[in-house]
Amino acid sequence: MANPRFDELREEAAAAVGDDDLRSVYTGLIHEDGQHEYYFGNDTEEAAELRETAAVQLGMMLRVLADRSDSSIDEITDLAVERAEEMQLR
Q1: What is the pTM of this model?
Q2: What does the alpha-carbon distance between residue 27 and residue 9 come to, in Å, rounded to a whole number?
Q3: pLDDT tens sequence across 47-63
Q4: In angstroms, rounded to a whole number, what is the distance separating the alpha carbons of residues 2 and 33?
Q5: CA distance readout (Å), 6 to 3, 41, 45
Q6: Are 42 and 24 in contact (CB under 8 A)?
Q7: For 33, what's the count of Cα atoms within 13 Å in the CB-facing half-sphere?
């Protein structure tokens, strides 16, 4: 395994998803065979709250991925937009 901390992070994430005080959950899974799964849920249906929650989720992910991949936020954003356009919701 390339990242020795990966198993520990998976365990931490699995435990955190079970917390009772969550307002929003996004879990994206990429399997070794390339299969993608994503689970996205919020404790609101109001459009403005959904937009804000989505912006926070995306911002957290962009910041971490840019830092860890030695890329700019713009580079990660451009690539993410390309991938999002290719995805189909199921």
Answers
A1: 0.72
A2: 13
A3: 999 999 989 999 999 99
A4: 17
A5: 5, 24, 33
A6: yes
A7: 2
